[in-house]
Amino acid sequence: MDVRDMLQAKGLRRTRARTDVLAILAEARRPLAHQEISGQTEAADLDRVTLYRTLTSLSKAGLVHQVRGVDGVHRFCAHGLGSMACPGNHPHFLCQSCGEMSCLEGQELPWVSVPAGARVTGKQMVIYGVCAQCRDAEA
Amino acid sequence: MDVRDMLQAKGLRRTRARTDVLAILAEARRPLAHQEISGQTEAADLDRVTLYRTLTSLSKAGLVHQVRGVDGVHRFCAHGLGSMACPGNHPHFLCQSCGEMSCLEGQELPWVSVPAGARVTGKQMVIYGVCAQCRDAEA
DNA sequence: TTAAGTGCAAAATCTTTGCAAATGT
DNA sequence: ACATTTGCAAAGATTTTGCACTTAA
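Output (structure tokens, whole complex):
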């Protein structure tokens, strides 16, 4: 399914900001931080504010999901885009050295019991440390 | 074990900022945000910056641990303080309405496999939604 | 005494808001 | 044509840094 069709299906206008950002996220298949997205050439000339608002609307529409690591940085990941799907129900690994986050696919998050009466909106698990590449660089 | 002894045991000077903040966290037994701590009367007259630095040193010394929810706010929880221990190996629940975070004790975090070669420093899981109190308030 | 910690001022980020101009349907 | 989006400027919020003063050991 095409990125532009996805937008239309969700009732969002197909603007350049949205198509570009969604395409970048779908391509990456791992959660990207605001900064990483704006660094991509396709999004290079998008205003910071526009990027924030774009990510907010994509997120509200359910086209991307949001992860926030121990570093406090928002990261967004596209999912539901056909074969490139990112189910969103898996843990993530955050490298505290290079700041890159990756999906640990194929591992479901456990069911957790919450205090009586609470409504659960979502859950997320982040494993953090140093990735293989950064460990090599250290040595 | 006394809060002041804990500091000494870790080789930290026993200053008012540290004893007060550690006492507040030990008393709360749930992760408190920077703001929640500075709101407490015992810490009311501490400088913002001092509080940040105090939390950093307590964290480095391992006297408190840090959790960061989907809201991106740092929260700190005392642990290892005798009977008030907060093991730190459990999920947390974050109410997105009132912003209060609580420990879901008695539930261990699952073991997760990470990419080969990566070094794991820690992990954390946050369940978010609306707590019972806020649901009542809504209605 | 003297190295560590604190307080104040100021900077650096990250994120949000207001409003006029541009764009999609 | 008309409601949404965008871009710019500016405001807010959070966290960090520099430096002189104070305090614990």
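Residues 3-138 of chain B form a domain with the Arc Repressor Mutant, subunit A fold (CATH 1.10.10.10).
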